[in-house]
Amino acid sequence: MHGPLSGFAADLKALGQCFDTLIEHIDARVKALIEACPERKRDYTRLRKIAGVGAVIGSSLVNTLERVPLRSADAFVAFAGLDPRPDESGKHRGKRRLSKRGPAELRRLLYLAAMSAAKTKTWKPIYEHYRQKGLSSTTTLVILARRIARTPGFSTTKNRI
Hints:
Elements: H1 9-36, H2 38-48, H3 55-67, H4 73-80, E1 84-85, E2 88-89, E3 92-93, E4 97-98, H5 104-117, H6 124-132, H7 137-149
Antiparallel strand pairs: 1-4, 2-3
């Protein structure tokens, strides 16, 4: 390495190792919190069965669904800001866009789940179907994110998954 940061390679490596250790501690704490409550563990296990939902996304979704009372999958989609916002008035019919009213991090995680799911044998045909219809990859991934959020058993009454 040359330039103004030359000579810091050992320090940067040590810093990277510190970050790795911290991430391991956080992951262990999240796992312990999930394991501590049987209902939370059951919900986390169910979410992890959805293609595209990994450990980070699953734990975040469990946390969100525990804290926010939602009555249906539609309510969850709206909470996440993945619902369409109409742009209509009289005869004017504008383009619908995402409302983006909910937490941006939740939307981002569902989008990442869709990116991962689009590569699985379960979701890939759906992804390719919408792409062949001429939709952009971003639009198609948002559709998949909405579908993941609406997966049966994902959210129901009494704030349970």
